[in-house]
Amino acid sequence: MKTPKIFIACDVNNVKKIKKIIKETSNLKLKFGYKFGLEFLNSKNGRKFISTLRNKITFGDYKLADIPNTCASSIKAVKDLKFNYITIHINSGKEALVGAKKVSGSTKLVGVTTLTSLNNRSLREIGYDKNLKKIVLHQAKLAAETKLDAIVCSPHETKIVRKVFKKEIITPGIRLIKDNKQDQKRVMTPKKAFQNGATSLVMGRSLIKGNIKKNIQRLIKELK
Ligand code: C5P
Question: With contact defined as beta carbons under 8 Å apart, do 158 and 188 qualify?
Fold first, then answer.
């Protein structure tokens, strides 16, 4: 089996904690990348810290959801951070995706499908009548058509997505056995998510809350 790739969701707002996460996950058998979301990106020293990172796989989880001009300009505005990955909501629309892809250069542009914190009921609340899986399939087709480099979806949809999207499939909504779902609705264990066809996983609270080293050991054990 290829070395499993895990993006650690660094959802904290201080540099000290990030340094600890990086230190405790370096030189292990797993291949880790570091995903920075809105919490850290908007924190006081977040941007500056990311600019100092070298030789790490970095993932700017901006989840852009805006008009084409704003999406493209925002990607250009963070070029200096040299992210390996940047996210955009597929719901931003075809024109925004095409425009973003034009300016993303060597940064992989990742299309976010339907958030793993939503289910059919929550989709109806915001006015979507179609079934969740159909929506995700539709979004995946658009990601393929607009030549995005990767997709984020729940591990429950990887098989559907794979039918139409041939590149990287990254799945959040991952929980170690017995861990609490918290605000996530569509969750799965790491092993099952890989078996379902995920090419990499995003894991936050299951790894960074409590004792990081112990959590990583649990992850390694569960992946065997
Ligand atoms: O702590 P937990 O493992 O639930 O964190 C999941 C991470 O993945 C968060 O940083 C969240 O923003 C991100 N994410 C997600 N669902 C998506 C896309 C991204 O949970 N569809």
Answer: no
pTM, rounded to two decimals: 0.95
Q: State the burial class of residue 197 (Cβ atoms within 10 Å of its Cβ: 0-12, 13-18, 19+).
A: middle
Query: Which helix (H) or strand (E) segment is 74 a member of?
Result: helix 68-77
- Ligand 1, CB cutoff 6 Å, lining residues: 9, 11, 37, 112, 115-116, 152, 172-174, 184, 202-206
Whole-angstrom Cα distance, residue 77 to residue 79?
Answer: 6
DSSP, collapsed to helix, strand or coil, labels residue 48 as helix
Q: 6-223: which CATH architecture?
A: Alpha-Beta Barrel (3.20)
Helix, strand, coil percent values for the chain (each to nearest 5): 45, 20, 40
Atom 15 of ligand 1, residue of closest alpha carbon: 172
Cβ atoms of 10 and 36 within 8 Å: the answer is: yes
> For 133-151, what is each residue's pLDDT tens digit?
999 999 999 999 999 999 9
Exposure string for 120-132, b = 16+ CB within 10 A, e = fewer: eeebeeeebeeeb
Report in angstroms the alpha-carbon separations of 183 from 85, 119, 205, 218.
24, 11, 11, 22
Residues marked active site are found at 63
- The first and second tokens of residue 172, run together, are 């959040």
